[in-house]
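Input sequence (128 aa), recorded before submission:
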Amino acid sequence: MKENKDAFEELVEVVRELREKCPWDSVQTHESLKSCLVNETEEVLEGIDLLSRENDGGNLCEELGDLLLQVVLHSVIAQEEGLFTLDDVILGITDKMRYRHPKIFSPDDKEAVSLTWEELKRREKERG
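Predicted structure, token format:
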């Protein structure tokens, strides 16, 4: 089995190659992919329901992969457009989760630890 990092890097390379060589993938835009993103999100929700009903995680695993493809594809397109990179997306969500979980990542910051998720979210937006 491949290491997670290697598997993720391989997915990114596959998406980049599809953007270069596939007639369908190469012309997609953020706008044209909106319906795909909605569809894949709905299929993840169905996968969660299936997991709850039948304790079968196989479908959920597949659908999460399809949703991950959407995230990578949008990020690759954004990089092509000079907007942001996949690393920016990853670093952004990493920073956000650290900021919004001060009890875990900043337990000595008594003020931050006392704030609710919504208060942390508001402060985060205020600081830009």
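Checked by second reader. The helical segments are 4-21, 34-54, 58-80, 86-100, 102-105, 110-114, 117-127.
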